[in-house]
Design goal:
alpha/beta; 2 domains; 6-stranded parallel sheet
């Protein structure tokens, strides 16, 4: 089998294709011959040495795949054999073969290609947790989605559109037309405008009920201030640290120093809330993940979950895929194919 290894911290050249021994499923596991692999920003942070949850390097990363089950381990349902599936992988996903616990495998809807199926697990589960589970977004409320053109951003637009909310989003101007076609009501060019002022203008100074923010640093403070009374801020990343020119872990320090501290008394007095989302820390909540995924698969079948794949790269060109994502050229998901 083939795997992409991060051999050391650094640039995309640190991603190396290697041969590995064949995997065999153990108790309760399924083996999947992988057809498509979702790339996430966490993979890029892991390569740069900025992702605390990543395995010690050298390592194979990757959180999501799609493909066909070709072997079933003891105590797993043999009916999985031959089925087309998509799955969550706790690392090891950058490979043409993976072994995954049965509880993290889901049957692929026939309407989806393998590439689109691999675009669902991380992005849509994260967006569902942000908007539905913890964000409690309601019809006729207003949500601000930062990085609206990202994989999580597009998933959030799908979910907010289904709920019936008013949707604002930040993105560079070249993505605005596409995002409005997807359901965004107002697109804000964060590269030329102060997005906070635009939100205040659009809401007549009231603010929005929900902000989803993967930016981190001082942007969290601005997002908090953009909330209406009873508003909720959902944080799920700190992409701003990749812009720092400081070496290695010092990037984390710079971002940490400008992060806001949320005082419980101030939260009470302002009738606001702040919550965090990290799907990688929910592996033990199997029933929740299964329930959320069922709702999303139902959404695929009903037509309102619409994963968008921007571009695919062969597995051996994983470094090129990372470079493409870091150039901020992508809209939606970038996928590796085997």
């Amino acid at each position: 089998m083939k795997q992409i290894w991060i051999i050391a911290t650094g640039g995309p050249e640190k991603l190396i294709l290697r041969e590995a021994p064949e995997l065999e499923p153990k108790n309760g596991e399924l083996r999947i011959r992988v057809r498509a692999i979702g790339i996430n920003f966490a993979d890029i942070l892991a390569r740069k040495g900025l992702y605390p949850d990543a395995p010690k390097l050298p390592a194979v990363v990757g959180y999501e795949v799609s493909g066909t089950v070709d072997a079933v381990g003891p105590r797993a349902d043999p009916a999985w054999t031959g089925k087309e599936v998509f799955a969550l992988t706790r690392f090891g996903g950058y490979a043409d073969t993976v072994v995954v616990p049965e509880t993290r495998v889901f049957e692929k809807p026939a309407s989806l290609s393998f590439e689109k199926a691999a675009a669902i697990p991380v992005n849509y589960l994260t967006a569902w947790q942000l908007l539905v589970v913890m964000g409690a977004l309601k019809r006729d409320e207003t949500v601000l989605i930062h990085n609206a053109g990202s994989g999580v951003g597009l998933a959030a637009i799908d979910i907010a559109r289904h709920i019936g909310a008013t949707i604002y989003g930040t993105a560079s101007a070249r993505k605005h037309g596409f995002l409005k076609q997807r359901g965004l009501h107002e697109a804000i060019d964060y590269t030329t405008l102060d997005w906070a002022r635009e939100v205040a203008r659009l809401t007549q100074g009231r603010g929005v009920e929900l902000v989803t923010d993967p930016l981190g640093g001082s942007e969290w403070r601005k997002s908090y201030r953009a909330l209406r009374h009873t508003g909720r801020l959902g944080v799920f990343g700190a992409s701003m640290m990749t812009k720092s020119r400081l070496p290695g872990p010092l990037k984390l320090l710079k971002v940490g120093l400008v992060m806001p501290w949320f005082n419980p008394v101030a939260l009470m007095n302002r009738n606001r809330s702040v919550f965090g989302v990290n799907l990688g820390h929910l592996w033990h909540e199997t029933p929740k993940i299964e329930a959320w995924m069922k709702a999303l698969v139902d959404g695929v079948n009903a037509g309102w979950v619409r994963p968008h794949v921007d571009r695919t790269f062969p597995l051996a060109q994983a470094g090129d895929a990372h470079t493409y994502i870091e150039s901020r050229k992508s809209t939606g998901k970038v996928i590796l194919v085997t």
